[in-house]
Design brief:
Distance between the termini: 75 Å
Helix content: over 70%
Number of helices: 24
Order of helices and strands: HHHHHHHHHHHHHHHHHHHHHHHH
Strand content: under 5%
Largest sheet: none
Structural class: mainly alpha
Length: 488
């Protein structure tokens, strides 16, 4: 017969699975504290606490996937009244393009990963000096992300690095050579960070680079070329500064970037590459040819924004699977295993943003920014929305501030000219795109990387990402601030 003691034991064991006991106690404490803060202190304070708690679950993503603890916080927030299902649903609807992208475009990359892996392997093997490879990788990601989607590029980079790791681990995983294994992990960790930061650099420059860019351009009435013209005063020097940082980090092998590819890893990857080329059949060649054709079509479709990114992803899946004979349900379903957990987590994130929206968590700071005038207002806006972006989410903060700017321009508490209005639009773009790289929750590309299947393999934790992106964050933020103050 099952006793109450046994039930309690099973509850403790199964609650959040294999997470450490201290982590389980912490999450339970959060769930107890939040209603007390809501009813006995204030909903505003409780809202900020819930936001910080959710960031904590992201920071401990390697202890427990953030979906479960973050989901519990979101459910409780709706129960006690910090937000409501209608607001959460509205947040989801407003972010449907992002969800479509995560579900379908990320899955679509699975069907063209073979040819991408061949191409990237050739590049990795051709360039032995890590500082040159890192700079090239960062530059390519920056250029492509100005026209393509950052999450798509990060998904490609993750797939390539995952394959490299799998090749090495398959042979050397049980050899006991942990020092060499850690060296290879560090090498891949550095490259994936350089590439992800590169997507952020390029994403600031064009209308299609980041989700908030489209929204800002719409509010300002800017075309594709007008967006670049207005933002390039800040975005170009900031990107150049970022590329310089990339080179210096690797050339001088600064802390966190001292890892090199072990010769054994290079030999195994080269051997695998030669084997694939040698054993290539007519079927393999045909599949690669189809993937190349579809990849070219994908680049043009994304560059000219012929449809929402997620819908383009569906088209890619249909075309590739049709012409490569992948017609079984399992053949298609396996592609979604990496995309779906993150898509669900993003919905939970929208629920937390619903709390910020309902409780007007950032409104006092937005109002405070407009008490300044001239260049000091621009700097205040840059640093405030930048700080809030890496605390919460860049797209959400951009939405709040661009709406505040629009209301002020329409005749709010401080009338501003058309020129001032456009300058503020540039600052919202740069403030939410650059400082947000400080933390994974600030930028979708970094969050996607943190919660990917690659992160635990490379021991890429929240704080590890924070440390690796910190040099970029500091230099690029300072460069952006100087460009805003002196040239905007």
């Amino acid at each position: 017969m099952i006793s109450i003691k046994n039930i309690l034991h099973l509850l403790i064991v199964n609650f959040l699975g294999q997470s450490p006991i201290w982590y389980k106690i912490t999450i339970v404490s959060f769930l107890v504290i939040n209603p007390l803060l809501f009813y006995f202190v204030s909903p505003f304070v409780a809202g900020w606490v819930v936001l910080v708690q959710f960031i904590f679950t992201l920071a401990c993503a390697l202890k427990c996937y953030p979906l479960q603890p973050g989901g519990l916080l979101a459910i409780e927030a709706m129960i006690i009244g910090l937000t409501n299902p209608h607001t959460v649903y509205h947040e989801v609807l407003a972010n449907i393009p992002t969800l479509l992208l995560l579900i379908f475009m990320v899955a679509a990359i699975y069907f063209i990963k073979d040819v991408l892996f061949i191409a990237m392997t050739k590049l990795f093997l051709a360039i032995r000096k890590k500082y040159i490879l890192s700079l090239l990788f960062c530059s390519i990601c920056a250029c492509l992300s100005a026209f393509l989607d950052a999450l798509t590029l990060v998904a490609i980079a993750i797939a390539v690095c995952f394959n490299f790791y799998a090749i090495y681990y398959r042979v050397e995983g049980n050899s006991g050579n942990e020092e060499e294994m850690e060296e290879f992990r560090g090498y891949l960790r550095n490259l994936i960070i350089h590439g992800t930061v590169g997507t952020i650099m390029g994403g600031t420059m064009t209308l299609v680079g980041e989700p908030q860019n489209i929204m800002i351009a719409d509010k300002m009435g800017w075309s594709f070329t007008q967006f670049f013209s207005h933002c390039s005063i800040v975005s170009v020097p900031t990107a150049i500064a970022g590329l310089i940082v990339c080179f210096l980090l690797e050339f001088f092998r600064l802390p966190g970037f001292r890892y090199q590819m072990p010769e054994r890893a290079r030999e195994l990857i080269l051997k695998d590459y030669k084997k694939k080329i040698h054993e290539m059949t007519a079927q393999n060649f045909y599949v690669y040819a189809i993937q190349i054709i579809v990849l070219i079509l994908l680049v043009f479709a994304l560059a000219f924004h012929v449809a929402e990114v997620g819908l383009i992803g569906i088209g890619l899946i249909v075309v590739v699977t049709t012409f490569t004979g992948l017609t079984k349900e399992h053949d298609i379903g396996v592609a979604f295993t990496n995309a779906m957990p993150f898509a669900v987590l993003i919905v939970v994130f929208f629920a937390i943003l619903g709390v910020a929206h309902e409780q007007h968590l950032v409104t006092p700071l937005a109002n405070w920014v407009f008490t300044f005038e001239g260049q000091m207002r621009l700097l205040a806006l840059f640093f405030v929305n930048g700080t809030l972006s890496f605390v919460s989410d860049s797209v959400f903060i951009a939405t709040v501030f661009v709406n505040e700017v629009e209301s002020v321009y329409a005749g709010g508490m401080a009338a501003i000219s058309q020129e001032d209005y456009e300058k503020l639009g540039v600052v919202v773009n740069m403030g939410t795109n650059i400082p947000s790289m400080a933390t994974p929750n600030g930028h979708a590309a970094l969050l996607f990387l943190l919660t990917s299947s690659l992160a635990p393999l490379l021991k890429l934790s929240y704080f590890q990402m924070f440390k690796l992106t910190l040099p970029y964050t500091i230099v690029m933020t300072i460069t952006g601030a100087l460009a805003i103050y002196f040239y905007l």
